Amino acid sequence: MHYVKAKGILSPNDGMNLYRGCLHGCIYCDSRSKCYHIDHPFEDIEVKENAIELLEHALKHKRKKCMIGTGAMTDSYIPLELEIGNVRKALSLIAKYGFGLTIQTKSDRILRDLDLLQEINEKTKCVVQMTLTTYDEDLCRKIEPCVCTTKERFAVLKQMRDAGIPTVVWLDPILPFINDTKENISGILDYCIEAEVYGVICFDMGLTLREGNREYFYAQLDKRFPGLKEKYIRNYGNQYIVNSPDNPALMKFFHEKCHQNGIVHSNDRIFEYLNTFEEKNCPQQLRLWDLDM
Question: Do residues 90 and 36 touch, judged by C-beta distance below 8 A?
Fold first, then answer.
């Protein structure tokens, strides 16, 4: 862990990353790509020491309320969050100033902040986004080794449902020759149906590989799936988009099952929902003479 002083905290699209780097160890992590210019070891978490002050200043001076997003580049609930608490401090400010929130994670540590998520959702809209890639628990532990399993994330989705907080699932990535099966997709979607998620984001049944994350991914394949790296190289070379050979059939199955069960499966529609600020109507103030004295 190391500290830096940031110049700003919100992107032009009102996203924020309170940390840079991660400890979850997911073998496919795109955030390791060199294009993101993380110039320190990925597991050496960068903490923006002035993030909360910058956020309060930004929220105070925004002319229009909006959705604030976090967790896109670094999971919001890395273990360090329990020590530093910047996410919880940020959520408190978002609630205080009446902004909406969309937050991404793979961790059940988000339940620590359920009270603040509910507070935000009562005033505006709070959407929890959860990544699910692998229905099989043992396989999940191999490809996402240092974060809670899919079944534990499913439990989080159900608790959000019971708390009235809308959820979106990222079905991504699907790794060719590892979890690109109809059984895997069906199991994940069964979880989504039971948890009554709003929508499922899926671009294709595959993943992306570029300089930085490709090398890490291949090293992890050698360690966890001996011989599979060579199959990737034969089939994909240095392609950026690495789709399953069964992509067309799996995508057809995905769209059909979502449609049959009332789950939104248009990426454009889901992103519009995530980015749309909704201010909920407050109950009209009671007049004194309306009260039963």
Answer: no
